[in-house]
Structure prediction request, 159 residues.
Amino acid sequence: MVSTIIEDAAVRHHGLLIPVLQEIQEHYGYLSEEAVKEVANKLGMKISDVYGVASFYTAFSFTPKGKHIITVCNGTACHVRGASRAVDILSEELGIKPGGTTPDMQFTLETVACLGCCAIGPVVVADGKYHGNMTPAKVEKLLLNLRKGESIEKDKICV
Ligand code: FES
Prediction:
């Protein structure tokens, strides 16, 4: 139940908004309208203020995301090394555009401006694991492994 999680998180984080929102995001995968209202009520804030803070951070989402989140860096360094090809492959395979989620809620595809590890571009992050030097073949293999539910090894850590 949303209110129980908010209640516990508010106590654990001494009423600090962002950690409470993080817990809800982690638990449900997004911040529902109901959750935002309950957080505002619990912390004695205006609903608009909660939305204002949450919408500032890209880590928070107001729509449900897929089980697997794939993020392709489309910053300049990754772009010139072929990131758009990775986006095209993933879009085609999954049948969604960046920002979209598959109807079965298995995959969400996102793009980002720069992940800070340009030297190993193009970079794709899958479920929080960074993969560098992503050729089309490596993108295909990554997606295949995610579909099979196999654990994926990260190529390199850049953060
Ligand atoms: S441009 Fe992709 S990591 Fe910097």
